User: What shape does this take?
Amino acid sequence: MLIAVFIGSNASYVVSRVKSSIANILDILSTIPISIPGIVLAVDFFLFFTSYFRGTVLDPLVDPSILLILAYSIRRLPFAARSIFAGLQQVHISLEEAAMNLGANRLHTFIRIVLPLISINIFGGAILTFVYSMSEVSTSVTLGSLRGDRGPITFYISQVVYGSVVVGAVSVGAALCVLLILLQVMAISISNYLLKQRFSIFGM
Amino acid sequence: MVEVKLINVTKKFGSVVAVDHVTLNVNHGEFFTILGPSGCGKTTTLRVIAGLETPDSGRIFFDDEDVTDYPPYMRESGMVFQNYALWPHMNVYENVAFGLKIRKVSKDEIKRRVKEILELVKLEGLEDRYPHQLSGGQQQRVALARALIIQPKVLLLDEPLSNLDAKLRVEMREELKMLQRKLKITTIYVTHDQEEAMVISDRMAIMNEGRILQIATPREIYMKPRNLFVASFMGKSTIIYGKVVNKLRKYVEVECKNFRIKGVTPYEDLKVNVGDKVACIFRPEFFKLKEESDEVNSFDGIVESFSLIGSIQEVYLRVGSARFIFEVDSSFNLNIGSKLRIYIPYEKTVVLPV
Assistant: This one.
């Protein structure tokens, strides 16, 4: 989530402010992951990291969590990037120019003017990324299955549901789903609440 | 307070030349206006001075310091944007204090200076308001205070009054001028409003299609325009085209379709020769009503329309295929369709090469 937001903010900033072919390529790069099926990414990751990083922390057979984070970041980057891009389009370039005119360098301008103004969008993008990542299935199931004890929640749900035919315990799967839904609803509620707060702080 | 010099500054956007070899000199503490129609490159010129655009060629000096390669935050210029560009997430105090905070000025001093500057722009007591809680005029003052508080070397104003209503605009421009006189700060003001430019500036530059056409005092630009564009852009006038038939030391004679006109070229270097096509420019206030007949510079016509503008009346007179605009005293009795003869002395007739 943090990675997606970080990359998303930076990429969006460049895309919205720089008019060149590099910006266009970056725009495409930050959007294209949406077209990659999760299963493809998972198999890719599995083949690549098991052959070149065998036995290290990056080996999904040792610990899939880092790879899962990476996979989520890539797959959900477009959601963060788009949300932040929309925010940046609302921030008129003259607001930044005014800051630079008054003596703020680019970094200061970004931190003190741009970031506060798009914080709603960054936060929105982050929550969206989080929610989508939590309920992500294909990558989770594929990579997570390699070390069941460190797999994500959707992997367990699928395990229980698929296994239920044999075990007859749909109720466990249902319980896990309820847990997941609760988590998601909480995240969304918190974001809504905070965004309203922000609104009044910004007085917009 | 500095002297600003632009030497041969050119800026292109793709194939469009926004600023075309502009050379100008703004003196210490001067109120300098760049006037031109929209899209003439005046805002780009201002942005080049602020460092928000990098010129393709040419140099910019603040006094003797070459600032061409300085980023905007090193230039120490204070700019007021057309849309004010106030930061919506900061209140008035924070907006105004920003430039000082960046400069790491102590808290007490920031407080003192913000108070001082807000008093100067008459915004005391509004420190805690957010930009959207302010009227257009107040926002404008905040933007001005924000630019002035860093004690900039040069104050840059990009059509700051264009978003205000007519009455407020007149008030603000008077205030702006008073403030500038008081602070004696070198100011460059960009506008497309010729009346505003006339009233407010010490000197002004007329710009069109990226080029500077004339730099002079408002009076000189009005009385002695260098070319046809300047003449037609500044104030009202009647323009008649013709051909030079006689050239004397004091005046030139121009043969037009229906009449012969005597006039003067305003500058020595603007040479016209016999046979050249020229334009004759008449300002409305130099016409006189005349009874006796005099063939040169007298025009017989029919009153087409007239309107009362305070102490004068503005009259449109149909003379053959031409339409003259002139002013008469508001006490003069006019009737639409009535005949009138007007006269203009040759010294007041400007002849310009076309």
Notes: Residues 199-204 of chain A have pLDDT under 50 and may be disordered. Chain A touches chain B at residues 92, 94-95, 97-105, 108, 112-113, 116-117, 201-204 (CB under 8 Å). The CA atoms of residues 14 and 20 of chain A lie 10 Å apart.
